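Entry for the shared binder. Reason: the reviewer on the internal report wants the predicted structure included alongside the sequence.
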Amino acid sequence: MRARLAYVPQEIRPTLEFAAVLGRRFDFDTLLEATHEPEERLLEAVEMLVKRHLLREEGEGGVYDFSHDKVREVVYRDIGGARRRLLHRSVAEALERHVEGEAHERDARLAEHYERAHVWSKALRHLVLAGERSQTLFAMRDALHWFDRAVALSERMRKRWTSVRGSLSTSGAAQRARRPGRRRAPSPTFAVSSRPPVRAGSARRRAMR
């Protein structure tokens, strides 16, 4: 597999990486929105990947998937961590602009991409929305899944901020900030939605009603 990928021209490699981040199946319009490439150039790149049997186009046109799961897995793993986060963020922002499909599926995809992009506040917001939308569809198992992930992410965010505050409190910068006449910067808040914060117990109880 790596031998096949080694022969992919460098100029179309970014297209393949974006496709791998989008998922096993994706549409051309979303890929275009995420890459910001000129349409004709992007189409040529996709067609070259189809000719190399790395991607294949579905019958109705404009929708593609990988010829094999292994192709996508190898391409995705080979993307560096920093670049992978950047690509996930670009894809998430493209999905927000490209309003299409069922709302609960869209929120689930946005939550996945923003979490992998380390955009924690937006990931948390869409995890909660995915849980609430699943709840309205009486998909209680799905609702519990998204609420549990929202609670877990919220806890990680709290621990990360506690750690940052602990580091600052022992630093010289923090000591100087406490000098008379200096105002202390407010603690950051993580806005999720206008609704009350989701707690592990309350989220699960709502989903199980």
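Summary line for the report: The first strand starts at residue 25 and ends at 27.
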